[in-house]
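User: Can you model how adenosine monophosphate sits in this protein?
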Amino acid sequence: MTVAVILKHKGSQVETLRQAATLQQTVALLSSKRIGAAIVVGSGGEVSGVISERDVVNALAQHGASAMGMPIENFMTRGVVTCRMTDTAESLMEMMTRGRFRHVPVVEGGRLVGIVSIGDVVKRRIEDSDLERHAMREYITQAG
Ligand code: AMP
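Assistant: Here's the modeled complex, given as structure tokens:
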């Protein structure tokens, strides 16, 4: 299963922020969209960072409530690991396990075209194995 197949089901919507956005704006976005991370983009739409709930927790632990008014450039992770449409679900799981993160933006030709979370990968794999089980059952009952 490829990233292209996962995005075909979940869509290409990605929530983005500029690095001048505050932590307050970030938690508002993560909460209203019910997501765990947003991608930080530059003026040309290029990926410049990622900010996730983990970064919010670390920011609050370090600065207390005053972190909420600070720009996310202070807290985001730079050097974002990205993937392509042709990457497989297995290679994404390996990337996530090795890097200890749960979100991977999809970039094609320098453009952000989607995001895949560990939840998206697990959901597709469960759906695939359900389909496979159903097909096996049909095959066995028809063969009998
Ligand atoms: P997450 O598990 O996605 O909430 O992220 C855990 C940590 O990894 C946070 O510090 C994120 O900023 C960072 N992170 C999340 N996704 C990526 C990624 N694709 N590449 C590099 N760092 C990431």
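A couple of observations from the model: The pocket of adenosine monophosphate is lined by residues 36-37, 50-55, 77, 80-81, 99, 101-104 (CB under 6 Å). Helices lie at 3-10, 23-33, 53-63, 89-99, 118-143.
User: Helpful, thanks.
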